[in-house]
Amino acid sequence: MLYNYLLLFLLVSLLVYIHLYRSEIKKIQQQMVDIKKRESNRLLTQGLYTKELNGLVGTINETLMKERELRLELEKKEALQQELLTNVSHDIRTPLTSLDGYIQLLITADNLEDEERYLSIIQNRLEKISQMLDQMFLYMKLEDAHYPVNLEPLDLKQLSLSRLFNFYDIFQSKGQEPQINMPNEPVWVEASEDLMDQVLPNVIKNALLHGQGDLILTIKEEGSLHISNSFTGSYQGDPNILFERFSTGSASRSEESTGLGLSIARSAVEKMGGHIEAKTEGQVFTVSIYFNQP
């Protein structure tokens, strides 16, 4: 008799457990439908806890979180693309307008000297437009989380001097001579040759475009690089705002600047695991870059 009661109890318990298990599966399914329908940030909850259900809910929640991360990344890319397209239109309008004017002058020119002068100006405008587009698409690539980066031990002294030398003619035309302070021994840092081509030239261009006076380049043994020069007037606010995209030292962008140079430099430095910052002391503006050392 006791055996029959025990058997009946086990059977009823099993039926109740099966019912609860099926109800929990239905609740999980309904939560999934609601999350999909509303594109909610909710995660699954459960009322019945077993090894199998815990594993199922945990795996689904991990998948939901990864899907949301991908969705946010996609939304960020779409917003960036829209902003870039808007600013492409803004930035190339002026050079395109002037380009049209010079083409009309070229057509009506009645001597070879004027034709050559107008052709030279047209070529210059086209090069500027090409540079603007290159910078904008480069920035989009650097903002991609999957952008490939190959770091290797490189001598910061050699990297800096070779890129500084590319501006020799510009320094000469401005009557400037860069001041260079660095240790005698190599300063090894973890860096990428390709990314360094986006860091130093953009920082130096910014200094030449918005600053004045001799540029000072300082390299320290702990793997840091500092580029300074003076500026006129006064700078209000945090100078690090200049690293934000489409920001320039003046109130608006011009044909000479897309406002992406320092932003590209920051993205490139961060891709290498480094840090870049700006500060002002009196009338001196300094960009400092800190690298990891091998």
TrEMBL record:
Q: Does the keyword Transferase apply?
A: yes
Q: Which residues form the Histidine kinase domain?
A: 87-294
Q: Where in the cell is it found?
A: Cell membrane
Please verify whether the record's keywords include Iron-sulfur.
no
Record key words, sorted: ATP-binding, Cell membrane, Kinase, Membrane, Nucleotide-binding, Phosphoprotein, Transferase, Transmembrane, Transmembrane helix, Two-component regulatory system
Q: Where does this protein have coiled-coil stretches?
A: none
Q: Principal localization?
A: membrane
Q: How does it sit in the membrane?
A: Multi-pass membrane protein
- Write down the InterPro entries for this protein, in alphabetical order: HATPase_C_sf, HATPase_dom, His_kinase_dom, HisK_dim/P_dom, HisK_dim/P_sf, HssS/ArlS-like
Write out the GO MF terms: ATP binding; phosphorelay sensor kinase activity
What is an example of a Pfam family matching this protein? Answer: HisKA
What protein does this entry describe? histidine kinase
Q: Which organism is it from?
A: Suicoccus acidiformans
